[in-house]
Task: structure prediction
Amino acid sequence: MKRRKMLLGLMSALLVFAMVGCSSSKSEDTGSTNTGTTGTAATGKDLKGDITVITQKTDIVDTVFKDYAQKFKQEYPNINVKFQALSDYEGQIKVRMNSSDYGDVLLLPTSIPLADTPQFFEPLGNYDDMKKQYNGLEERTVDGKVYGIPTTINFNGLVYNKKVFADAGVTEVPKTPDQFLAALQKIKDKGAAVPLYTNYAAGWPLTQWEADLTTVAGNVDYVNITQANTDDNFVKGSPHYELYKLMYDVAQKGLIEKDPTTTDWETSKADLANGKIGTMVLGSWAIGQIQGLSKTPEDIGFMPFPTNAEKVIMPLADDYTIGISSKSSNKEAARAWIDWFINKSTYPTTEGGGMSPAVGAELPATLKQFEGTDVEFKFQTPAKAGQEGLVDKIDKDSEIGLWQPDFKKRIIEAAIGNKKESYDDIMKDLNDKWKASRASVASE
Amino acid sequence: MVFKNMSYKNQRKLIIIAFSLIPVVLLFTFAYLPVINMFKYSFTNWNGYSDHYKWVGFKNYKTIFTDPKYFTVFKVSLYYFVATFVQMGLALYFATILSFKVRAKNFFKGVLFFPSLLNGVAIGFIFLFFFKPDGTLDTILNFLGLSSLSQGWLLNPNIINVSLAGASIWRYMGFNFIIFLGAISSVGKDVYEASDIDGANKWHQFRHIIIPSIKRIVQLNLILGISGAISAFDIPYIMTGGSNGSNTFVIQTVDVAFKFSKLGLASAMAVVLLFIVVIVTILQNLLSKKED
Result:
């Protein structure tokens, strides 16, 4: 009896210790808010320090990034750069950000809400000054201060195999959803390739469709402004309805892979490269990877998402943005790396596979074909003041998951007859959720 | 010096405390503390990384119990529940057979236990290839001339959970098997010999000697199996990510926490799951006590 009491006492003492330890570590973090902007006035030789750069590029961290470090060292001989690559970047970095050890330079996780950015990152400069130098800063600008510069700028649409389309007798690039469906049908009839590969099993490739919302809407205001202020985000005739109707139609007409539940992303890239797949909905970042797997890279083309809108807008969007940890002790050195990485490394155009964020940079080769056509390249208009991150908030609260594969999977399941609900049922359900959450977010 | 002067009783106490300190600290920091925090978070709207969060009282629990979508997924657990019995039946069958004199006994033991040694992710991928159209299963069926039976094993929403539960039986059967085997081998040889003399056949031995002597172990395996069925996770998560009607409660919890950044709500779901498992275990204990 006595012994048991002692043990109990010991355990409760431990418990108290543990609780105290836990709560004190939490409150410390709030102290360090913005301590002004870090300048880049100092020249290369003056800057020194060790910095850790965290990246998601596990495949090239020991090869290409090593070269970057060497070239960087020639300009900044006193800065030592170390790399850490995380395979599940988004998941792992979020956990590390609860501590103060998350490197000096890192990519801003997309799932961190805009309002929480200053808590973790160092401001890089004023938006008004920096926008003369870089595009795509809006995504991580809070109260006029920039926290992240895009590592590269992606454009979204469809990667397709020109030869597959030509062999099936499709001579012109389809522009409207109807033309697109007709073209896929021809490929199916030819029988040599899967017309459109959904990558249902991997899940995340389905989220690439959402990036084409601007093209379907035909309006750069839609995503951040119109959408945030409408209760009818998924009703018939709205861009979301039209966008995913195409997904539904393609699946329902059997223009996709035979068994979507057992697809494999790595194989799909090779199959598209070798003409076993007609097209996939992807971003520009994928073009290089797929061309690299093909013996005839010139066959791999890129087209805007089919739309009924008057103007064809190919939306430009930031890839991961890069920023400096607010807990870094070598902020100036970190800043030097970022400036060098964006402007002087080959990353934005080659490894990243998109456009350089620097203002006035040249268009990449895949986009040159659209120069002089009616295809426009545009950024989405940022949200109105006071509505930053609102769409994301409504999305999370409603558990719709605009950038998650869940409801896209539901659409495909319904289209191939695995679920009893119709396309309109799904859209109605999503719209109800959207409406309810928009109201509840507004009342908070 | 001080230790020497203590009475034997006190020395004993000190040693016990000294030895249990490290395990208790570890248990606390890695088991109880997270659970306590989980209870705490379940009353907040924390998103998983922010410095600040609000206390929302029982709002998360209200959401779980009022929105049908959080509970309908338990239907899927029924498949795994049924599979638990199949799994235990098979495990008991093999354990009994291999406890008698069989040729290449150790080889078969190894074969049956092998899946338990494999990593869950590897098993997920093995079965993904197994169930693929024209994959291993279809090839075997073709070879046997049963190609008419081949299906979209993961494509057909009526079959997907059976396929996944099948994979899960394969994965966990070995573990049950080894426990049964251990229990059966603890039954004394003389009992069998006595029954042999009395003219009992193998079935009689199984029914009247083996079953009664390993009853406790059967119950233990059943509890493990049922709580495993309620919290089925790894096989469906790796193979389908919970799509096409294979979503389970735990997958849903993970999604809520990490896809939608509602750590508070997800904690509440985990607490609910914890209570369900505890209640089921208590119920089962009560029922089996009554039998005794």
About this structure: The longest helix of chain B spans residues 8-41. The radius of gyration of chain B is 24 Å.
